[in-house]
Specification:
Immunoglobulin-like; 13 helices; seven-stranded mixed beta barrel; 23 strands; six-stranded antiparallel beta sheet; 3 domains; alpha+beta; 24% helix; single chain
């Protein structure tokens, strides 16, 4: 028997954080260990006024040039980003740079656009970079680092450089950019069209009228409204069938992430906002998080009652909205006990891998050390140096009351570890092995005989496998009946036999186990990391 090995499918490690923090793109532009140099130049001296005017009019870009890390680009377009962080007359608004505005082939390291976030309401300046680092461990999410921005020779400020969720992002993460692509962008200015429900926002409630969707979603592909309506119909009316059009597991990861990080400027909060939906080659929508400057409790409204106080954030219910019909992505999915167990296991995984024993603080402090001098030199910054230095341990601001990251997350971690729905014992999965050729035997191994020891009263054990990383996983049950490569019956060893298909010589797989109260996976980050074996190694 050979111990199975793990394969990383899309993550590359960096720095001293090879165990915990990983980066799935090696381009210098999003290297978190360096600060990018971006120098913008406009012919207009009143460029701030012009950008304000363009933002109010809702369209148009200002011509300019830009130099990125010494590489110059002419004829680019610049505007303020479409976000609630925009403030007219502000000295430091978020920027959108379109490098391919005129020349469609013009790009920097394959990127035709650049998104620069002002990090509004984040005195720590780490919420986005750190938040995306965590997200990328469990689901596709943008890359992000920092940029030092100059405009017309003057220091405009230290910004967060966030990868756009665009064609390049979709191709890298889903293999194609041709599927239905939708941005959840609730209209918070105009009232809902006549006949539409009020305050639906991006919650994915079903409505038969397309005009109601137009009010809260932005279609970024050539077509797809019917796909979105089908998703909301199944989610609300036939949730048992929603898996046909929704990557349920990625949705559960997103919801678990939002809850643990108290990320309420999201689907979990009042406006059900700040996510995309992309329909992949398997016909399933994948939710994608973005706009994380308000995560870690900077935005505090769940849509139920008033803003949460610090203690409320620290002790926010992991099953928040479970009975809220106006949040069907949560309430409808978690009605299914199987999905509910998966969701709670995802919460346990994030807590144990990221926040247990305050190991996250070292990374947060490293990011702040990297940017401290540039933040100090930024005369347009939103917060004083004292606020930046205290932003981990103290609440900043008398009105916004932005909690310190450590002030929020250490008590929150303790709360989640002790919460009754999480402090249960899930099945333990260990000793994962694949049968190899017997020593001195002439009979070669031609199939994958996989075993695992599963304890803590499992009621269900399943193997998910594939021979091609571009294909979806297939499921087979693992049994402990003494007849499926599992040793003696009822000995706690579960087995399954996979016959290679189409001449395949390798296998990627993960194991799922469930008992009466909880579920677990091996490996825990199974969508990015799987067990693997090859016939060649099994026969050596």
């Amino acid at each position: 028997m050979k111990k199975t090995t793990l394969i990383l499918l899309s993550l590359f490690c960096f720095g001293a954080y090879t165990t915990l923090w990983a980066q799935d793109d090696t381009s210098d532009f999003y290297d978190t260990g360096t600060i990018q140099e971006i120098k913008i130049r406009f012919e207009q001296e009143n460029w701030r006024y012009v950008l304000d005017s363009l933002r109010f009019n809702g369209d148009g870009l200002l011509f300019g040039t830009v130099e990125i890390n010494g590489q110059k680009f002419d004829d680019i377009g610049v505007r303020y980003r479409e976000s609630r962080s925009f403030q007219p007359g502000n000295k430091r608004n978020s920027l959108y740079l379109k490098l391919n505005y005129i020349d469609k082939e013009q790009n920097y390291q394959g990127r035709g656009t650049v998104k620069l976030s002002s990090a509004l309401r984040d005195p720590s300046m780490v919420r986005e970079v750190f938040g995306y680092e965590i997200a990328r461990r469990y689901m596709p999410a943008p890359l992000a680092n920092y940029a030092r921005v100059m405009v017309n020779g003057e220091y405009y400020g230290l910004f967060v450089n966030v990868e756009p969720i665009d064609d390049a992002f979709l191709k890298r993460n889903y293999g194609t950019d041709e599927g239905t692509f939708i941005r959840c962008a609730p209209n918070l200015v105009e009232n809902e069209p006549k006949g539409c429900k009020a305050d639906v926002f991006g919650s994915l409630q079903f409505d038969e009228s397309a005009k109601c969707y137009l009010h809260n979603f932005q279609l970024l592909s050539e077509s797809g409204w019917d796909d979105l309506i089908e998703l909301t119909y199944l989610l609300n009316k036939k949730p048992e069938e929603v898996h046909r059009v929704l990557n349920v597991d990625q949705a559960l990861w997103m919801l678990a992430y939002n809850n643990v990080l108290a990320n309420l400027s999201s689907y979990t909060g009042r406006y059900s906002e700040n996510y995309y939906l992309y329909r992949d080659n398997q016909g399933k929508f994948n939710p994608i998080v973005f706009d994380l400057n308000l995560c870690f409790g900077s935005y505090k409204n769940t849509g139920v009652g008033s803003d949460l106080k610090l203690k409320d954030l620290q002790e926010m219910d992991p099953l928040l909205h479970v009975n809220n019909a106006e949040k069907p992505l949560i309430s409808q999915l978690l009605k299914d006990e199987h999905y509910k167990k998966m969701y709670l296991d995802h919460i346990r995984t994030i807590v144990n891998e990221v926040f247990r024993k305050d190991q996250y603080l070292e990374r947060v402090k490293e990011l702040q050390a990297l940017i401290r001098e540039d933040f100090k030199a930024d005369e347009n910054r939103y917060y004083a140096m004292e606020d930046f230095d205290n932003s981990l341990t103290e609440t900043i601001g008398k009105r916004s009351r932005i909690p310190g990251l450590q002030q929020l997350m250490t008590p929150r971690t303790d709360f989640l570890k002790q919460d009754v729905v999480l402090a249960v014992i899930p099945p333990s999965i260990g000793d994962v092995t694949v049968s190899s050729r017997e020593q001195f035997s002439a009979e070669r191994v031609t199939e994958f005989k996989i075993q695992a020891k599963v304890e803590k009263f499992p009621t269900e054990v399943a193997l998910f496998y594939r021979h091609d990383s571009t294909k979806p996983f297939k499921r087979v049950d693992m049994t402990d009946d003494g007849r499926h490569n599992d040793g003696e019956a009822q000995d706690g060893i579960f087995g399954a036999v996979i016959k290679p298909e189409g001449g395949a010589t390798e296998i990627q797989y993960y194991i799922y186990a469930e008992n009466a109260r909880a579920a677990s996976f091996s490996p825990s980050r199974y969508m990015f990391e799987q067990h693997t074996a090859t016939l060649e190694e099994l026969n050596n």
